Amino acid sequence: MKHIKEHFKNLISLHFTKDSEIHLHEHVENFCLDISWKLINNPNHQNKKSKKLRIIISKERVEDYSYLDQEDKQLFDKKLSNYIKTKAISFDPNHDRPSSQAPPIETWHLIM
Length: 112
What we know:
Blueprint: H1 2-13, E1 21-24, E2 31-36, E3 52-57, H2 59-66, H3 70-90, E4 105-109
């Protein structure tokens, strides 16, 4: 399961900038990935981070993936990639919390 979670992390990471902070939660059953980055649109708060994006794929879906043949895994990967790409277009990383507070979290539950 760990190698599948790493695979999903690498696939999803392709849709975000290299300076994004990406954290895979290792000790949870579901696939859970947090992504954030520094916002560059506010010169008064140069260290302010974006909203945290949390992507969750159920434990069952991860397990199902492990039983797929190579062709179906590639199809799943393509669907996952398209899902992230589509959702990322409408994601607004900005928020009104001061940089001294934890940024809000927006959660995407993968249902495919």
